[in-house]
Structures are given as structure tokens and as C-alpha cells.
Amino acid sequence: MNLNLNNKYALVCGSTAGIGKATAMSLATEGATITLIARNEDKLKAVLAELPQQRNHDYIVADFSNPEELKTKVSDYISKNHGFHILVNNTGGPKGGPVFSAGLDEFESAFTQHLKCNHVLAQTVVPFMKEASYGRIINIISTSVKQPLDGLGVSNTIRGAVASWSKTLANELGQFGITVNNVLPGATGTERLTEIIKNKSAKTGNTEEEAANAMKNAVPAKRFAKPEELAYAVTFLASECASYINGINLPVDGGRTKSL
Ligand SMILES: NC(=O)c1ccc[n+]([C@@H]2O[C@H](COP(=O)([O-])OP(=O)(O)OC[C@H]3O[C@@H](n4cnc5c(N)ncnc54)[C@H](OP(=O)(O)O)[C@@H]3O)[C@@H](O)[C@H]2O)c1
């Protein structure tokens, strides 16, 4: 199998840390030219410097709390530079907590960051993908698409909406050589996971180590994922090798999800 992503342009969101950063590295290693997106310009510059330097990687500073501005920035970028064959939709996860006590503003901001931003980005990149007869839209969501996770009420709710949006888009765009798939991380060693462990420890009175061990024990693999393990799945889905895989939810969770 040859994943060869030479001459492919990839827009990788939330790519200064965690799964997004690992994905940018992995796609670049396979030959893609990367445009990073996140809010913190210093971190973007630092990741840019880590990417293989033989191609013109670049970045856009944008905040997923403002979809209109995001759309304008990415449209301007495309008109001045190039379109994208690969879009990785990814951003920070919504705040934790039970669904019953969640405020309307929490649902609204999670819907904006996760659904509206994915949508405007897809609308912005798809015309070039159609022309190229090659498109890969890969959404980083969560295993909560298949099995809601305790203490992540708003996240569980919005993730379902994103998965449904994605499946519908896959049905509409398949005829143009564009696939739309979701990668569902289980517990993955990133800043987001550190935050989740801290919340669990505060809620239960267990130490952070005890909270982390309880989470690991719930996984058949008995460990957390490395961000690279997610990135490899995304890289495969981005390649020509995955051309007949469309509209799926791929858990990368060490077997934690109980559903078939
Ligand atoms: N890690 C896990 O165990 C796990 C499990 C299931 C699902 N997930 C989901 O997978 C996704 C990625 O998780 P991760 O663990 O890799 O997260 P992470 O380590 O917290 O990284 C988040 C990335 O998104 C960027 N970002 C955050 N808020 C943003 C905003 N408003 N606008 C633009 N960029 C923003 C951050 O950069 P800036 O701060 O510079 O903007 C950073 O690059 C999240 O949706 C998360 O909930 C993670």
C-alpha cells in the first residue's frame, strides 16, 4: 500500500496540539502540503517549523467561535494561494458536565464550533475538490457518536449532530470523488484528556492517577492512545487507498466502545 500524498494540499484544523498536530505531521510525512489552523499564532509558527521543510507549508490564524470570519479567512486564502484536496475538521472539545444542568449558551457555542465551522469549511473547500475530482473531508469527533460518555452532556449531544451532518454530506458528495468520514478518538493522550482527568478527579475525590487508571481499565487495550495512532487513521482515510470508504464512523479507541 502506498499512501503517497504528494501534490495534495491539506487544511488541518486545530493543529497546534494533540490529534490535529499529529495529523498535520503524519500527512506531511506522506507528502502533503499543509495549511494549519488554530488561534495561537506563536504555536502555529512553532508547529510550522517542525513540519518537513521541503514544501510550502503555511498557516491561518482563526477562531472556531466565529464561523463567518473563518469562512472569509479561508476563502481569501484559497483565492490568493490554492484550494485543498483534504480537509481535517477538528477543534477543541466542549466543556464537560451533566447535560441536565447545561446552559443554552453551552449548546450554542458547541454547535457553532463543531457544526457550523465544519459546514462553512466544507462549503469553502468543496468547489476545488470537485474540480480536482479528489476530496477527503475527515471530521475528528468522538466515540460518543456511538455511545454517550458520562459527564460530557453537551459534547455527546453535538457530536451526534456532526455525525449526522457528515453522513448526509457523504451521500451528496460521493459522486464527485469526495469522501466524508469521521474518526472517533477514544481516550487519547492530549491536553484535552488531561483536562478530563482533572475534572473526574475533582468530581470523585480520587487522585488524578486513580482517575486515569480507572479510564485505562475501561479500555481492552488498558492504555490511552497516542495522538499519532489517530493521525495514522486520518492519513489512511485521506489517501487514494481509502477511495471506496465513505460515510463511516471509525472508532480509534483501543476497543473501548461497547457497540458493534
Ligand atoms: N483527547 C481525547 O481523549 C479525545 C477523546 C475524544 C474526542 N476528542 C476530541 O478530538 C478533538 C481534538 O482533541 P485533542 O485532544 O487533540 O484536543 P487538544 O489537544 O485540546 O487540541 C485542540 C486544538 O484545537 C485548537 N483549538 C481549540 N479551540 C479552538 C478554537 N476555538 N478555534 C480554533 N482552534 C481551536 C487548539 O489550538 P489553539 O488553542 O491555538 O486554538 C489545538 O490546536 C476535540 O474535539 C476533542 O474533544 C478527544
From TrEMBL:
The lineage of its organism: Bacteria, Pseudomonadati, Bacteroidota, Flavobacteriia, Flavobacteriales. This is Short-chain dehydrogenase. Pfam families: adh_short_C2. Belongs to the short-chain dehydrogenases/reductases (SDR) family.
